[in-house]
UniProtKB/TrEMBL annotation:
Gene3D superfamilies: 1.25.40.80, Deoxyribodipyrimidine photolyase-related, DNA Cyclobutane Dipyrimidine Photolyase, subunit A, domain 3, HUPs. PANTHER family: SLR1343 PROTEIN. This is Cryptochrome/photolyase family protein. Residues 161-187 are annotated as: Disordered.
Amino acid sequence: SGTPHWLFGDQLGPHFVDPARGGPHRDAPLVMIEARSVFRRRRFHRAKAHLVLSAMRHRAAELGDRVRYVRADTYRQGLREAVGGGPVTVHHPTSHAALALVHALPSVRVLPARGFLVTHDDFRNWADDRGTKHLRQEDFYRWVRQTHDLLMEGDRPVGGRWNLDHDNRQPPPKGAPDLGVPAPYRPRESDIDAEVRSDLDRWEREGDAEFVGEDGPRGFPATRREALAALRRFVEHRLITFGAHEDAVLAGDATMSHSLLSSSLNLGLLDPAECVERAEARWRSGDVPLNSAEGFVRQIAGWREFVWHVYWYFGTQYRENNALRHHERLPDWFTELSPDATEANCLSHVLEQVRTTGWTHHIPRLMILGSFALQRGWEPRAVTDWFHRSFVDGYDWVMVPNVVGMSQYADGGRMTTKPYTSGGAYIDRMSDLCGPCRFKPSVRVGEDACPFTAGYWNLLHRHRDRFERNARMTQAVRGLDRLRDLDELLEQERERRD
Ligand code: FAD
């Protein structure tokens, strides 16, 4: 009963200390370790370093005497300082590296993972039953809906369809500068934030850590209370418009109707079950349309769960995949988040957003940043590392499948049916970013050639053999045969690269 329990920095909500759900005993002392080496290993966005430290220190302040909060160089040292060699419990951590560490420490007993709907065993059974090395999110999502009774009427999906994606791909409203929805919740900073900021300043000054990006006023929740306020505001005022324009991008409206809950979920401040239950309740009471409720439930019960389990199921080698053999280095302007270095308005705009906030919604990540990296042939591992460092919600488990699998197609299609990339026409249709751009989405060769349009054809050409064998890509690849200026385009792209 008195065995101390260790909380990692992404295990901060009540569901990580709940004896009724397999957590530590009510009286068990708690241990938290702030390991400086984490910041020395990687050059994180400062807003992310700030958020994580702020959340940990706020949690420690809430727990008061019950927690021993240790500042140490490494986790090992911190644990030694907190409990000597004595026994400790910990919930299953969220990265392969952290799991290997806790398994290597003989005194640590690992309890089941928290913060996800589906257990490791249930996922393994589901995936093994498929009998294939290709897993599909859509199949998984339907199974989760059934087994967790989410938006179901008996054994059928409410409204008769599993997936309302079709309704959720509308371009942005024409001519509107923003979506006109109530703003998302933003927290107010506390003394703890001031202390974090001054620590980060000192570490930078003393050469003990280096960061990128701007650490403006903290934009994301650091406490359970703040996270609940953010969830409430989203569900009550913003969920209603979540669906229709989910994939659209507006220069003047970075957040649109997105929930901004990813960092809170990933810090463990919110449990996914409470998020999807509240969304469903809003639909059941007739307050939000089904395409919005279903779209949101799919993001959390479908995508987020799927990505978590794929990370574990595909194992430690998954991150090394490089099916397209991409080996180019990321340019410095990209890693330094220098938006002025590129003339492509969409890319510059999104990089600026990342620089100032550490966040953009899924379409800029997938169809602008990720798609650009894929087209340029950047090394998937380095791209994964960049995303991990630059986003407030980035953690190993969520970045590896999203970048290696989803965005860079480096796993050759084990978790997606085709590469996610496009020419400028898609970006033009789904955003207002092309209007002011000096490039033209329809032009592929010459001064005005859109880097995405040219990059798209270049990528298809380079991987023609592989893509031709994919039924969902055949038509796109055949388009190459209609390009009379293909040789010119390839020459242009070769020069651009050098
Ligand atoms: P909403 O649009 O409001 O969606 C609701 C929630 O669904 C999110 O909060 C998130 O928890 C969950 N979700 C949706 N899609 C995914 C997904 N593919 N993977 C995991 N969760 C998902 N999400 C992260 O949490 N951390 C990451 O490091 C991350 N990296 C990404 C990298 C790439 C290249 C891509 C394409 C996507 C990535 N995502 C990541 C997924 C998604 O873009 C973000 O979760 C989302 O944009 C966060 O904003 P939001 O909370 O407003 O999301």
